[in-house]
Structure formats: C-alpha cells, structure tokens
C-alpha cells in the first residue's frame, strides 16, 4: 500500500470508526466467530509506517566512529601488553606497546571530537557523571586513562633517549618508577577502555547492536587483544614477543567464538551481518584474524621477523575490518524497519505464551 493510499484511509478511502478493534483485542474478536465463519479481512502482515524506517539511522561518520571503536580497543589492550612486558622484564615488548597505546588513544579521541564537531561537546559530557549512561561512564574512563597512557609513553621516551639533563642516572631511576606506575594504572583501566564502546553501542535502539548486547563486549575484547598483539608482533623482537603471540591466539579465539555465538542468538537482527558491505568486511576480518593467529604461532617457532610482521599486519587489519563491519551492519539494520518490529513481536509473543 502506498503512502497516498494510507493517507486516504486504505483501499476504500474511508475512515474507520472508533469501535474498530485493533491489536490483541481484534484477535479475540476473531476467535469468537463461529466455526463456519471466515474473516473477510486478511491477517495483518508486516509493513512500515508510510514505508519509512521505524528508527532514525545513526548519523555518525563511519571513519570517525568505527575508527574510534577500533583505536580505543587497540589502546586499551596495548596497555595490558605493556604492563605484562614491564612485569616480566621484556622492555622491547613494553616500549612499543606503551607508545602504541598513547598514539591509538590520541587518534581515538581526535576521531570522537571530529565527529562531535567541537571539542566543547566532549567537555560538556564531563559536566555530569551518570552511572546509568554508558556514554558518561566511558567519557570519564577516557579522561582517567589518557593521561596515564601519555605519562607512560613520555617517560619511556625520556629514559630511552636520555632527555633528562645532567643528572641522568638519578632522574632516570625516578622516571622509570613514575613510568611503571603510569603503565600499571593504564593497564588497570585498559579492559574498560577496550570494551565500553560495545556497551555504548548495545545501549542504543539499533537492532544489530542492541540484540547482541550479551556477546558484543566479548567480541570487542577479543578484537582488541588481537589488534594489540598484532602491533606488538610487528614492533617487538621475536625473542621478547612471547606474550604477544599467546595474546594473539587467545584474542582471535575469543573474537571468532563470541561473534559466532552472538550471531546465532540474535535471530533476524543478525541478517545485516551477511549482506552487502558488512558481509565483505566481516568475511575479510575472519580470514585475516585466522591467518594472523596462525602466522603468530608460526613466527614463534621459526623466529622469523618477516612472519611476525605479516602476522601483525593481518591481526591489525582484521580487527579494523570487524569494527567497520559491525558499524555498517548496525546502520543497515536501522534503515530496515523489519529488524526493529519483528524482534519486538517475537518478545511479545514469548511473554504471552
């Protein structure tokens, strides 16, 4: 039925009276008919209101917000690897992880502010702390995390390049202590930084984000771990990259397993993952993540830097493809009202049974 037909009151052009039954009441009226009677009006089938989406699709820019999701995850997981390298005496693993975390969180914040339009809009989100708002909690997590990450990276650079003045030995010791404290503090907030964006997406009404609220944080955690291990594999010598290789395997397994479980449990809202651009991105992500994990394992046995570099590139690219695929799938699900209405009807039917 076209919008014009609907505006004229349907095919007959008349306006229904106030007594016209609707919804569940209409169903009860139909059931009270005798066995020999048939309804002259067919059961209502799915359609949208005037052919319009039920939801307004997200207006976020794909490069900004999907990039913000990816870089935030990379930063948070890199802080954990940096702390691991620090505690296990692997300075050449800890150093690139610290610098990578600082660079990633800087770019992540820049992407967020660019999407918001003005820096003051981000500052306005800090005026009130609302524990029930993922956006508010996430903003405050970033405010606590970013300075610690910057301090850890700055002290690493200062000690490494001896930017400490005349009393280098004494000051270096103090800087190392400060840097270690900042590294451990950033690592404590790292898991929240890597996963809060999944909670943020799930808190929206966008079907392909909201329906995966149970598993999406685990998907993002695995993706972040895979990306951070990819960066470490590419930058650290193979002799010190053991934690990165193990993290790559664990992250890839968590990402792939949680994503498949999420798709099975989402019902119809998972369809956009298998259509158009999201399908291409997510298939590429899966292939790259599996390849990267296999190469990471192989690099440990061969001690070959070229294999480690290939593993790192595959894991970093696969993680990025996952974030962009999830983003575009959410936008596609908001554009089609079927993904909003059908799950709602299924939940109502389950409650009534």
Description:
- It comes from Streptomyces griseofuscus.
- This is Polysulfide reductase.
- It contains 13 helices and no strands.
- With 353 residues, the chain is mainly alpha-helical.
- The protein has one domain: Formate dehydrogenase/DMSO reductase fold (Up-down Bundle), CATH 1.20.1630.
- The longest helix has 35 residues.
- It starts with a helix and ends with a helix.
| String of helices and strands | HHHHHHHHHHHHH
Label the CATH architecture. Answer: Up-down Bundle
The overall pLDDT, averaged over residues, is: 86
Low-confidence stretches: 1-34
Shape: globular
Q: Radius of gyration, Cα only, in angstroms?
A: 26 Å
Q: What would CATH call the class?
A: Mainly Alpha
Q: Give a quick account of the main beta sheet: strands, pairing sense, barrel closure.
A: none
Helix content: over 70%
The proportion of strand residues reads under 5%
Would you tell me which CATH topology applies?
A: Formate dehydrogenase/DMSO reductase fold
First CA to last CA: what distance? 31 Å
Coarse structural class: mainly alpha
Care to count the β-strands?
Answer: 0
Instruction: Please tell me the total number of domains.
Output: 1
> Number of helical segments?
13
CATH-level-4 superfamily name: Formate dehydrogenase/DMSO reductase domain
Membrane topology: Multi-pass membrane protein
Keywords: Cell membrane, Membrane, Transmembrane, Transmembrane helix
Main location: membrane
Subcellular location: Cell membrane
């Amino acid at each position: 039925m076209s919008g014009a037909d609907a505006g004229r009151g349907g095919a007959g052009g008349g306006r229904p009276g106030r007594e016209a039954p609707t919804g569940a009441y209409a169903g009860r009226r139909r059931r009270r008919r005798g066995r020999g009677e048939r309804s002259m009006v067919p059961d209502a089938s799915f359609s949208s209101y005037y052919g319009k989406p039920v939801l307004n699709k997200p207006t976020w820019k794909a490069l900004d917000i999907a990039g913000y999701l990816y870089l935030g995850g990379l930063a948070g997981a890199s802080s954990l690897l940096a702390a691991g390298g620090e505690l296990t005496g692997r300075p050449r693993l800890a150093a690139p992880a610290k610098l990578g975390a600082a660079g990633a969180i800087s770019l992540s914040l820049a992407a967020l502010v660019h999407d918001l339009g003005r820096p003051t809009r981000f500052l306005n989100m800090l005026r009130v702390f609302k524990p029930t708002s993922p956006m508010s909690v996430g903003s405050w997590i970033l405010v606590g995390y970013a300075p610690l990450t910057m301090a850890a990276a700055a002290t690493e650079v200062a000690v490494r390049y001896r930017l400490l003045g005349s009393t280098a030995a004494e000051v270096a010791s103090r800087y190392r202590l400060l840097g270690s404290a900042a590294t451990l503090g950033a690592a404590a907030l790292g898991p929240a930084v890597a996963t809060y964006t999944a909670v943020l997406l799930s808190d929206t009404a966008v079907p392909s984000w909201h329906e995966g609220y149970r598993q999406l944080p685990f998907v993002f955690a695995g993706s972040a771990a895979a990306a951070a291990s990819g960066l470490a594999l590419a930058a650290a010598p193979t002799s010190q990259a053991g934690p990165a290789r193990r993290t790559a395997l664990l992250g890839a397994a968590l990402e792939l397993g949680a994503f498949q479980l999420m798709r099975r449990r989402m019902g119809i809202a998972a369809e956009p993952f298998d259509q158009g651009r999201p399908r291409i991105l997510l298939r590429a992500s899966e292939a790259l993540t599996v390849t990267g994990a296999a190469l990471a394992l192989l690099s440990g046995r061969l001690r070959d830097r070229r294999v480690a570099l290939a593993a790192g590139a595959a894991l970093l690219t696969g993680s990025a493809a996952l974030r962009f695929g999830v983003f575009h799938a959410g936008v596609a699900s908001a554009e089609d009202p079927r993904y909003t209405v059908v799950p709602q009807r299924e939940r109502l039917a389950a409650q009534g049974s």
